[in-house]
Amino acid sequence: MGEKSKTGNAWVNFILIFVMGAIFAIGFFKVPPAMGSLMEYFQCGLGEAGWFMSACSVAGTVIAFATGAIQTKIGPKGMLIAALVCMALDSLVGVLAPNVEVFIASRFIGGLGNGFLATAGPTLIALLFKDPAKRGLPNSIWACWTAAGSLIMLNSYAFILGATGSWQGVWWVCLAIVVVGLVLTVFGIRVDHAAEMQMVAAGGDVKPWAGLTSLNSWLLVIVFACFAFIFSAWSAMAPTYLQTPLVGMDMAAANSVSSITTVTGIVGSLIIGVVLTKVRNQPLVLVGTMVLCTVAGVIQFVFTGQAAIIVVAVLVGLFTNIVPPALFSNAQWAAKTPAGVALVMAALPIGSNFGGIPAAPIAGAIVESTGSWAMVAVPLGIVGAIGLVCAVVFMVRCSKYAVGAAKSGSDAQ
């Protein structure tokens, strides 16, 4: 009974943690559907507005070098609280911002919170589920926290806007939701403080750049950066593109279609998980995912027919979200020891953040300078090709390890 009780408590705590992640993501993704209103309010163009999301990636890159040390001071629950505080400040400073510069600063604060949350979630799961064999399901569920929050915001934005009358009303609603989340986190999530501090005691000694000590790890980081560039361009700019005269959707339809990518992204993640368990040559799978991701980048803003756009939204979700699971699975071939794998995993977010930083500003600047959304396919295609080349080089260097390990495991059975 004692063990069953502990497991029950673990799942109750985990569900609350997942809900807090979704609440954070609701606030984090309030900007894309509001992009048009924000540009009009702050009198800025697409290039400058692109920084409304890219500022978050800048913050994530900066904080990635310190989250290990911070977590040793305040623990993973403290990191979760800090993440929600950052999102509350993001909403409060943003809604009161007198100019675009202060608004971008509010997004930087939100990006810091994203870095805290990305570190806290997996650590709390490891703390709650002591048996590594039982962490697979909660880790898989946790991977959907951004998708859950994004899906909720994209499909509720028009309703909240109609009920409150302005984008500021959406920000106030997000602030209220985050405050409720903060209270639930402080009083509802129960973890042993001594145990959590013991678990993270050595975290401050692990530096993200420690994983960037080999060509193989650099190749994976670059692939992750290329994926992030392609994915960020769509997630930040799609609602705006769909509301242009080229496509002609209203706000509700644009946000709804954009959310299709989130749903098919979850499906894609599940499909590639099955593929990775069946195929011995996992580096080859990574190459395949980058081929499809590049295709997704090129087609994002080329089609204007509404039926075609729906197909594009489906494919972008399927073709981009298969990359991260393939990267995480291949991290084991980029290092020679289990400890080295952990270091490579810690370094991968650096690539993700660096790739996400310039995506929306570059896409916005190209549209402003050329007047053509289709021209955005050029940098997206180039970046995808770079990621594909790196994936191919990684496959050439590491396939023998993956196939050899799979063969050894099969022989042992």
What does this structure look like?
This protein is an all-alpha fold and 413 residues long. It has two domains: 7-205, MFS general substrate transporter like domains (Growth Hormone, Chain: A), CATH 1.20.1250; 206-404, Growth Hormone, Chain: A, CATH 1.20.1250. The protein has 18 helices and no strands. The chain has helices at residues 2-28, 31-42, 46-49, 51-64, 67-96, 100-128, 136-142, 145-164, 167-188, 193-199, 215-242, 251-278, 282-299, 306-320, 323-330, 338-356, 359-370, 377-412. Helix 1 packs across helix 8 (145-164) and helix 4 (51-64) crosses helix 6. The protein is globular, with a radius of gyration of 21 Å. The chain starts with a helix and ends with a helix. The chain crosses the membrane at residues 12-29, 49-67, 79-97, 109-129, 141-163, 169-189, 217-237, 257-277, 284-303, 309-328, 340-367, 373-396. It is found in: Cell inner membrane. One of its GO terms (molecular function) is transmembrane transporter activity. It is a multi-pass membrane protein. InterPro entries: MFS, MFS_dom, MFS_trans_sf.
